[in-house]
Structure formats: C-alpha cells, structure tokens
Amino acid sequence: MTFDETHLEINLEALAHNYHVLRQKLDPKTLLLAVVKAYSYGHETAAVARKLVALGINYFAVAYAPEGLLLRNHEIDTPVLLLHPLPAHFETIVAQRLEPSLYSLDLVRHFITYLEARRMEQFPVHIKFNSGLNRLGLSQSDAVILQELLAKTKAIRIVSVFSHLAASEDPNERDFTLDQIARFDAFYDTLNQKLDNTPLRHILNTSGIFNFPEAQYDMVRSGIGLYGYGNDPKFDQELVPIARLKTVITQIHHLKAGQTVGYNRGHIADQTMTTATLAIGHADGISRLYGHGKGAVLIHGKKAPIVGNVCMDMIMVDVTHIDCKSGEEAIVLGPELPASATAEAAGTISYELLTSLSQRIKRIVVNS
Fold first, then answer.
1. Which domain holds residue 265?
2. Is residue 252 a contact partner of residue 323, using CB atoms and an 8 Å limit?
3. Rounded mean pLDDT of 320-326?
4. Total domain count, the chain
5. How confident is the model at residue 56 (pLDDT cuts 50, 70, 90)?
6. Angle, helix 142-151 to helix 174-192, in steps of 10 degrees
7. 62: CATH
8. Are residues 232 and 247 in the same domain?
9. Same domain flag for 224 and 253
10. Which of 89, 106, 124, 143 has the fewest Cβ atoms nearer than 10 Å?
C-alpha cells in the first residue's frame, strides 16, 4: 500500500474503553476528572473532551488558563480545574469561569483581592495541599491562616480540597503514599472544621486509582490512563493506547560495509545493509534519545530500529530484513508499539514522549 503523510490517529472508541475501565474501578458515587492539559497529553483536546462529555465525565483539569479557554472556545461548559493559575491570567480565569487551584497563601490573598475589587462573590476555587510531592501546595500549618482569610471574605467558595501523590505507581513507596494520604486527611479535617460547605476531596491519580482505591474519596483524577497507559504492565493490559502515529517511507538506501548513515556519521554499517528514511524527526517529538537503536518503528509488522542520529525532520531505520519500498507506511507508536515501551528503552517515560508530539503532525480522529 502507499501512504500520504505523517499523522496521529486518535481512536475515540479506545478512549471510551479506557473511560469505562477506570469507571469500573470506582464507587458509583465517585466523580471522575479527566486531565486534558498539554493538548490532552499530546493527542487532540477538542475531540477528546467532547467524547468524554458524551461519556459522562464530571470534571476536566488543565494546567494553564489558555488551555481552559480552548475548552470553552469549543463550547465545553463542564467544570474545569485550573492546576497552575498565574496572576497574569486572572482575567481569563474569571471570564471563562475556570476554577483555580490555590496552592499558596500569597495566591489566595492575591485572588481574593482581585475578586473583591470587582465585587465578585462565591467564585469556585480548589485548595491544593502539599502532602509530600513538594511542588505546589499549602502546608498543614497554613490551614489556620487560610481559615482566617476565608472568615473575612465572601469572594471565594472552596469546591474541593486536593493533593497529588508522588509515587503511587511504585510498590516500594507504598508507606510513603499511605503517609501522604494520612497527611491529606489531617489537613482536610482541620480546614473543614470552619467551612460553611463540605468540599470534595481528591488525591488519586491514574496509578492511585489502580493501587489505592480505598482513598478515592469524592473524586479521582486520570490523565495518562484515559490515553491508554497504566504505568504498570498488568494495568496496561486493561487499557488501549488511543493514538497511533504513522509516517511514510520516503527513500530506500542500500549501503556497503563501512558506509555511514546520518549526521556525524552516527551509524557505520558493519556489513551490507538497507535503510529506509522516514518523514518524521525530533521537530515532531521523536527525540534524539531514540537514535542508535533505542527506538524502533514497525514496517509490515516487523521492528525496524532507528540507526544513527535522529534528524530534525527525518529518521533512518534498518530494514535489511524487511521487504518494503518508498511510499509505504511505518508505525511509530500505537497499541502494537506502545509509547511506554519505546520511552522506557530510551530511559524516559510515556508522558514525555506523548506530550512532545509536535502540533505540526496532522491529527485524524477515527471511530467518532
């Protein structure tokens, strides 16, 4: 067969499958929040979000306000938790009714001041507690000061209190994770003593859903799981990667022993070999990490290792033992060649590989 151009197929049936797998892990009353930051982990935000709305998703989360604006521009009115609000985005946050995570006392004060200057009341916010990841979040000692701030204003209304697990996928860190959960309970109990409402609680990410279902509280959050990865081979078996990245063979080369391939003569043929040049490179998100055989593609169902250095727009693969020709397709990622395995071979993680996929790659939605 002949092929036209590099593209990323987004399979919405696979997304629905993963959604239902995660739902089955939860109590029927537990809400499910979908993390769609970074273009839905490198996929396609609008199509993914619309499908999740149709499936019954309760909440979305994004990192920054422009990502929330993108959802609103696609007429998605589901509540959106904004994980990393910046004061420069307060206007967008308020205008689009995005719900910011307030992770420091300074940010709480700043946002209250902004709202009060506009005589706004009961704006929905989420309180982020630092239970041990030490990235963002209030401390246990901040709880009392936060109560004092809340007692003096009607500008905000806390709709949830949450935290983030640092190593929920690692069985060797189980005690640390349980300690995080205990710390979160203590913070929530302290804060909740003087609130007029009872905020939602959530701490579980995808790996937490699988490994610590007893801590699902009122809501859980899933990003990577919805896209088909469970951070563990046994959980990966239950999920289906929703993306298949395809590219095209643009030229075949026949090399003699001693000839070299690519920049800096990155590969030297030790015997007669055949290579195929493919229309994808590090500008598309296939990092130089994957060169020198650490990455591979599938051509006619057979693995073709990357040889030499990854170029900006091209990679070269060893097809000595594969009968192929110019114009045929190669699969770079997909259910048959998961991002998790490719990333692990290069010493990184599926999150990085998926979110690195360039926006110049055409997205095609299938099974919508």
1. 243-366
2. no
3. 97
4. 2
5. very high
6. 30
7. 3.20.20.10
8. no
9. no
10. 106
* Residue 152: predicted pLDDT: 95
Q: What residues form DSSP beta bridges with 363?
A: 8
Which domain-ending residue is among 236, 256, 277? Answer: 236
pLDDT band at 3 (very low <50, low <70, confident <90, very high): low
The amino acid occupying position 345 is A
**CA atoms of 311 and 262, how far apart (whole Å):** 8
* Band of residue 203 on the pLDDT scale cut at 50, 70, 90: very high
The answer to whether 308 and 259 are in contact (CB under 8 A) is no
Dihedral (Cα; 190, 192, 193, 194), 10-degree rounding: 120
Q: Are 192 and 150 in contact (CB under 8 A)?
A: no
If asked whether residues 161 and 50 sit together in one domain, one would say yes
Q: Provide the token pair at 71.
A: 């959802």
Given 215, 236, 257, which residue is the final one in a domain? 236
C-alpha distances in Å from residue 202, one per residue of 130, 214, 215, 259, 310: 13, 12, 8, 58, 41
DSSP string for residues in 133-196: --SS-B-TTHHHHHHHHHHT-SSEEEEEEE---S-TT-GGGHHHHHHHHHHHHHHHHHHHTT-S
Residue 2 binned pLDDT confidence (cut-offs 50, 70, 90): low
Element (H, E) at 286: none
Maximum Cα interatomic distance, the chain, rounded to a whole number of Å:
79
